User: Fold these one by one.
Assistant:
Number 1:
Amino acid sequence: MISMKNKSLVSIDDYTREEQLKILDLAEGFEKKPVQDILKGFVVATLFFEPSTRTRLSFESAASRLGAQVIGFSEASTSSVSKGESLNDTILTVSKYADIIVMRHPREGSARYASEVSPVPVINAGDGANQHPTQTLLDMYSIRKTQGTLNNLQVAFVGDLKYGRTVHSLTFALCNFNATFHLVSPEDLKLPSYVKQKIKDNKLEYYQYTDMNEVIPKADILYMTRIQKERFSDPIEYERVKNAYILRNEMLQDAKNTMRVLHPLPRVNEIETDVDHNAKAYYFDQAQNGVYVRQALLASILGVI
Amino acid sequence: MEESKTRKELQVSAIENGTVIDHIPAKSVFQVVKLLGLENCKEQILFGTNLESKKFGKKGIVKVANRFFESDEINKITLAAPSATLIVIRNYQVVEKKKVEIPDHIRKYVRCVNPNCITNHEKIPTKFLVIDKEDIRLQCHYCEKVTDKNNLFFI
Ligand SMILES: [Zn+2]
């Protein structure tokens, strides 16, 4: 019997493959029945030291639908942090008020530290550029739901593969499921070598491209990410490549029928709005799946299921 | 053999009891002194640097009278001087000689290279997993970034 009771989730690797699958299975149950009173009497703290409205609302929706009370703050300036309180003190204080802490913080490593000082479990909702494991789990959920399996898939990542933490974490997670990786990016923004090494260590394959059109017919999943101008060492290079990484509806003609387009959102212009009505567009459903996955996490870490 | 030994001894005087740390990279001698907290040590300390060494080119050496280090203390210097040899002297005789060893975990005295790491912004002792002992690569327990020997700074 797998139990995640009191088990903080800071990095996707904190949960084994079996534990990750257990969360996905539980999330399926919440998708069927999203409103349940199983967290009545529990208090969930959402501590957002930097704003991330989408993630915070998703957690708060998950907690509310299960009957929990939510306390917290949505940016550091409205909290005691702006008065110079240490992270240690904030966490220790809040842990007296809440049964679980959901935390977003601009500094890398903050969530690991919080999980070590906190007597109540901590869910990392993003620590700087480091980890955002609930995003990874909702991505996995969306992939499994649309493909019927997580195993043996052709997964294409497009855009900024160098700095995109969602891509790195999802790559690590899919290394447990025999995926083949198709990596489409400008030269400046290729997947870091330590992530590619992880793919090799698992005896899996990856292919690198600069042209998105090459991967569309092969892919089961087309995972789009945003390309930011400030990531380029040479602004001229950005101007040269920016349009090559925009997905337009007509480009999806040769895609498999079962292929789905994912994106961690918010998007800027990397997916044209004419894609939104294509049956292959899945990014808004993907965001909705986040609520079910977070319900599964809250309920299992609080030990009620 | 005997002659070369004598010449070596002349470079830095011998001690009766204590510890000799030999084969320190020349540039790291003061770092080793600092890491071991010898600045405040009341015992006799002799140190030399830029000494000739066949194996290492220029090397440094530190001799501390009447001090015998625990392996925890010695582990501290491994990052600054991975090639160092530790020699325990009693009665002018070498009683023990060993290579320093890089431990699996490094705590407190190395700074994380990542400027956005929480340990560089709050009073949190650093903690690293040593992922490569030969090349010296330390993975931060908190931010997961790797600090390597080219950006190693001691706190
Ligand atoms: Zn760090």
Number 2:
Amino acid sequence: MSRKGRVGYIPPLDPKIKKSVGPPSSYIPRELRREDDGGGDALNLPELSELQVLRHYNRLSQMNFSVELGMYPLGSCTMKYNPKVSEMIASSDGMRHAHPLQPEETVQGLLSVLHELGEMLSEITGMHRFSLSTAAGAQGEFAGVLMIRKYLRDHGLSEKDEILVPDSAHGTNPASAAMGGFKVVKVPSGESGLVSAKVVKELASESTAGMMFTVPNTLGLFEGEVVEVSKAVHDAGGLMYYDGANMNALLGKTRPGDMGFDIVHLNLHKTFATPHGGGGPGAGPVGVTERLAEYLPVPVVSKGKSGYYLDYDLKQTVGRLKGFVGNSAVLLRAYAYIRLLGADGLASVSSLAVLAANYLWSLLDSEAYPVTHGKGMRRKHETVVSVRSGLPGGAMQSAKALLDYGVHAPTVYFPLIVSEALMIEPTESEPVEFLDEYASALNRISRELKEGRLGNVPRNTSVGRVDEVKASHPSTLKVRW
Amino acid sequence: MMKKNEPLTGSHPLLPNLDQEIIDEMLLKIGAGSVEELFSDIPSDIRLKRGLRLPEGQSESVVRRDLQSRLASNKTPPNSLCFLGGGVWPHYIPAAVESVVSRQEFYTSYTPYQPEISQGMLQALFEYQSLMCDLLGMEACNSSMYDWASAAGEAARMASKVTGRRRFLLCGDIGPTRLEVIRAYVSPMDLELESLPFDVRSGATDFSALSSRITSDVAGVYVENPNYFGVLEEGLLDLSARLHEKGGLLVVGVDPLSLSIVKPPGKYGADIVVGEGQPLGIPMNYGGPHLGIFAVKDLRLARSMPGRLIGMTSEKDSEQKAFSMVLQTREQHIRREGATSNICTNQSLMAVAASCYLAMLGKTGLRRLGEVIISNSHYAAKRLSRVDGVASPLFKGPFFKEFAVGYEGTRAVSVYRKLASKGVLGGYPIDRGFRLGREAGLFCVTEVHTHADIERLAVALGEAVMR
Ligand SMILES: Cc1ncc(COP(=O)(O)O)c(C=O)c1O
């Protein structure tokens, strides 16, 4: 399909400029030049017309499931609806064409939005101040771990080198702690699925630098002893880090600041409805209490006498983690979402997200899909069930079977403490009728699985079951055309 | 509309189940008396009884109008001219690229955990990896990092881990924000960063004078090409030979568009390439989202790489080709504290934009783009040299699309601000930390700039440097 000389877009060259400067390649010394014919370094990009390119990508898009196609209850990811109006706003010239190094007096409109967003997130979490610069949850975690490290060093406590992380935690938590140079101490959550303050007290010592804690946890359970856990870690001289990936359960209900946390990250691409982009971008702003305010990563957006500005003047800052400002166009969308809902609307979001998770769970055949932890407890924004099929791989089979119903599967095999886990997070944006259908699909699948009638699933997808083992041969990381 | 803490009345477009009848039915099935009861496991002393202190919700028409008017007050193209660079650059985005990335099938999906219904994203990302490898001359490229700076930070960490060494050298002419991010990324490691001097005449690093600093305890060297001043580095082939002899890794940071016309780093011995993919069809967006490039030359290094990789495989029961994520055992969700990085959510949608952009321009369009950029930037540098009180280009080294301009007796900050007040964004002041011994600003000229735009810049600069 590629044909020499064919292009989808070609930029114009001004004849006056062309005449004045002569042959462009003469400006590049020969040794540095990429030859455009012969030689091993010639570009080998495909040559296609605009329509050919569009057909290709439009076809690919038809082989991709998305929130606007059907229910996408991927646990821990909060795949809620992303309002179209936010896309429209983010496509303004004043957003798209704003350069991060342009003088602050020329971007006051956008800076005012970012500043207000920081204040709103502080109110929502009970923190003192936010830095919006971190690009995703994991980068917020890294910032948090660096702040813990620097704060302790500044207070002569550099011997503290352990971070407590519950065994139910997301993989980014231990990975971030390790990136920050800490040893990870695993906190077992036991049968209840909850972290007990007693266990934390036993594990906490003079080596404890802090704890990374997810509330509600990845089982969807509210950590009832969170206040006591915070106290135990603080008593040991450590700091409390709140993984805010599950904040969709708690908006307007309670705040990490009130639970005793010192540092918080939020995943704006989850709770605040910015699109997940097929894997990203996101935004993972990080907020802190007053005693850590000077440690935040820079820049933060501040308001001064002559307007809003990017503030680099933080005495103890852990530095800069992203090249420029932050994922501003994502931050703008999150701000728009908060404005659409307001205080009461956000509280309703959490009410309805929790209602949806508990409702969907109540519809599931409890023998086929038992919960392994926190048996008598209500769930928050998500439910984790274990697939009891008598067969290993039951969770994966069920997930693949669901794909044939025109819906996305739940998260599988996470958290690691639940065998054959399905982690279901319907979110508040799913109409109740679809929750009913999803549950009945899962119940039917469990019967078929048990009776050995499931067969090779999925059947109706653009490709059949993909061989993921074979894929790991590293000779297949690129292709020639 | 709704009462504090008992917000469950009325209707809202984002809340389809906000209806007392539905709520009651759902509660009945659950066996709960009220929604409030679902939250009764939260200790009452930490309940937020007062409600959030945020404004009331507003309809989309109101929010849209407010935000669009606030954003319209920003001075940006098309109403201002932008000649700023430094790691984010003004380039034209073909309409087809915008159309592709605004397809909801791409942008409202997430990480392709279920490959059977995510082949579109997987294939688009696989194509991105492949196209980037061709552009960079590398063997494996991941499917995105947050941005250039964080990719550079991860590369420094990786070089140290792979070699087990504790010294890492940075060229003195790299972008200041990349330098800061690298510093922060390695701060918890036992890794010493050393800065190499550059030549203030050429604006580039003289590697031949530095070969004695490349010893067998050096984990790697980070060089940007073009560097922060826009100047192309020479002598990199010799540097990589010397470095490889001593067992270190060469890490190169690039503007991918320069590779339309400049030799790719894979050809002069780069082991790891990082860079900013923003010029490949991604808006400047006041700093993000952008696209961090991360690629390696040796496939064995791929196992130590951060980030997600997509590979080609087949269906389980047939030869039908299919795509899926690969080498996941490097990643945090499996390896946890032993992972190569903590990255999870990345910048996939931006990688799709970049791959679509490269397909749109293709071999011919990209080459032409490089030529147009070089022509425009060199024309502009020459034109500015005719402005009184200005040295343009300041450095003697060859450049691609950015160049420094020196001023006589005027502060660079004041030139930058005066230009902006005339609707011309450009001349970002070069930090005094670079010790150039004079005031200077950085300009970026690309295919978006016309002859008339450059004329307007020259006139505005003439007025701005007048005392
Ligand atoms: C519980 C939890 N913590 C942390 C993260 C990491 O966030 P991100 O993917 O934005 O880096 C995630 C999401 O993937 C998560 O579910």
